[in-house]
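User: quick one, fold this
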Amino acid sequence: MALVRTATGAYYGGRQGRAALIRPNPDGTWRVKVNDPRNRLAGHDGWVLLGDDYPSLAAAAEATGVG
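Assistant:
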């Protein structure tokens, strides 16, 4: 599944049964979360923060593996 822009300006997509969310930070960098409830680092809601300082949308998308 390709990334789809949401009404809030974030991007949502999925790969191999996992959802990915990329959203902009106020300073122009990008925050990336992946839904992976089996990961021991996941929060109570099943989301794992991969990082919050990706310099571009392309770099953030590459981190998720979503096209």
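User: anything notable?
Assistant: Residues 4-64 form one domain.
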